[in-house]
Amino acid sequence: MTYQVPAGEPPLGALACPEPEDRPDLWPTTARRTPDGELALGGLTVSEILTDAPSPVFVLDEADLRGRAASWAAAMHEEFWPSYGMAGGEAFYAGKAFLATKVAQWALEEGMGIDTASRGELTVSLAALQEVGGEDATRLGLHGNGKTQAEIAVALGHHLGHLVLDSLEEVELAARAVRDLRANGVFGPEETGRVMVRLTTGVHAGGHEFIATAHEDQKFGLSVHAGTARQAIDVIIAAPELELHGLHSHIGSQIMDLAGFREAARVVLTLRHEVAADTGHLCPEVDLGGGYGIAYTGADPVPPSPAEVARTLAETVRELCTELGDPVPHVSVEPGRSVAGPTTVTLYTVTGLKRVELGEGTSRLYVSIDGGMSDNIRPALYEAAYTALVANRRPDPSVGLTRARVVGKHCESGDVVVRDVDLPADLSVGDVLAVPATGAYGRSMASSYNLFTRPGVRWVREGESGWILRPETIDDLLRLEG
Ligand code: LLP
Predict the structure, then answer these.
(1) 212: which strand partners?
(2) pTM above 0.90, yes or no
(3) Average pLDDT, whole number, for the chain?
(4) Is residue 335 lining ligand 1, measured as CB closer than 6 Å?
(5) What is the pLDDT of residue 278?
(6) Which of 17, 283, 321, 411 is catalytic?
(7) In angstroms, rounded to a whole number, what is the distance separating the alpha carbons of residues 252 and 385?
(8) CATH, domain range 63-339
């Protein structure tokens, strides 16, 4: 049976999900079809995974996550290797993409630091640091706008490598926190708190307005152009409690073109130069943030590798510093999505099929699954595109395809997980769909809307599996009731 696609849409077949061998960057590195035609991840078929884990479930390929973390750490270490005028480089995993103790532990073991954005993320990262036997909390960072004095005091008390201040108020809170830490004997009488300043560089980049962060008209950072950044910097330099360690820029998220990072580096390094010229204080570190894009569907380009990103940043920083006549700073980056995103696949079970006739012989198949916007809010929030592959069997090409929309079971018409995908025309209730690239901002942004229980996150590795996060239960939800 051949189904016609609605008018104005790409031809049937154009929106089919690529198999792992066709677009390896879209899938975890261990994803492949078994000879029987099932999708396997980490050496386990989807039916084996679903025997131990209820659908829907996030399946995270541990080897892939470790590999991506190791690539970022190595790329930054190598490209900024402290010789020939370089002063070292470092990659921090932005835990907001997805954080649990195991994941933080793997990132640390593979040589990344961890960047956190809340008390919760920081607590998990400190636990992971302990798990790996590390004492050195300079491998951790804390971000966020509107930090409280308590949060700032925790960061300072643990001697985090990066405490990134986001406002003039936070500068004052940090100074106050240091005075308290000195008074409590946690800090020595002369000890200072090491801080960085988040800059708004005016560079606008990113996949969607809600995830672009360095243009002027938004809540993050202190403006270079309007002078508030310089004001905060001068207050920090003058404060006997604080030590200005570095300048920080994060221009947005899901960025494929590296030009924006080069432009932001120019603004940051120029400010560093001006501050040094005026005050004699040359910031030892510059953090160029995260935001490196990934592919979500076959229509997306293959993103630059960590090595390519690090090389471009190193060339840019070296050139700019030569131009300015400044020593090169220690340089750090904070990738989140590009570490976690492609490591994870969400497995859903098809629960219903509804063909909607759209006139002139065209139609769309609405495919209901056992999850939805509570486990992936990104399509509803950012119009993010995803794709889906039938994972429990190899589709028979002779059956043909149909234009489909994969929808969740929430009470919202915007509850769409995959807006447009070509699926086998014989798709049936009970089939398993695998949605790739859900490792970043999937489970971490999940909700219990409609009192859904949030899915678990299962690690897979060489034929073994276990929980990173177990699935939430109704009892977990009820436990919060007063
Ligand atoms: N550093 C800072 C200061 C950030 O604010 C972020 C992300 C990152 C690093 C990591 O960015 P990444 O490499 O993951 O793009 N929920 C949105 C993304 C929000 C990103 C917020 N900040 C989404 O699902 O696309």
Answers:
(1) 252
(2) yes
(3) 96
(4) yes
(5) 98
(6) 411
(7) 18
(8) 3.20.20.10
Phi, psi torsion values for 238, nearest 5 degrees? -80, -20
The answer, yes or no, to whether any atom of ligand 1 lies below 6 A from the CB of 143, is: yes
- For residue 377 the two structure tokens come to 């809010």
CATH code for 24-61+342-479? 2.40.37.10
Q: Does the CB atom of residue 291 touch ligand 1 within 6 A?
A: yes
pLDDT of amino acid 204: 75
Whether 102 is in the pocket of ligand 1, judged by its Cβ within 6 Å, is no
User: Ligand 1: which of 92, 96, 258 to mutate, most ligand atoms within 8 Å of CB?
Assistant: 96
Q: What is the 252 CA–ligand 1 centroid distance (Å)?
A: 7
C-alpha of residue 441 to centroid of ligand 1, in Å:
9
Q: Please state, for a pLDDT cut of 70, what percent of the chain lies above it.
A: 98
Residue 375 has a pLDDT of: 98
What is each CA distance from 132 to 98, 111, 126, 188, 335, in whole angstroms?
19, 11, 10, 28, 21
- The pLDDT of residue 455 is above 90: yes
- pLDDT digit string (tens) for 374-388? 999 999 999 999 999
Q: What is the mean pLDDT of residues 114-133?
A: 97
Q: Once rounded to an integer, what is the mean pLDDT over residues 206-212?
A: 57
214 lines ligand 1 (CB under 6 A): no
Q: Give mean pLDDT, residues 395-408.
A: 96
411 is catalytic: yes
pLDDT value, residue 253: 94
| 150 pLDDT higher than 80 | yes
Q: Spell out the domain ranges in the chain.
A: 24-61+342-479, 63-339
Closest by CA to 286, choosing from 253, 322, 330, is 330
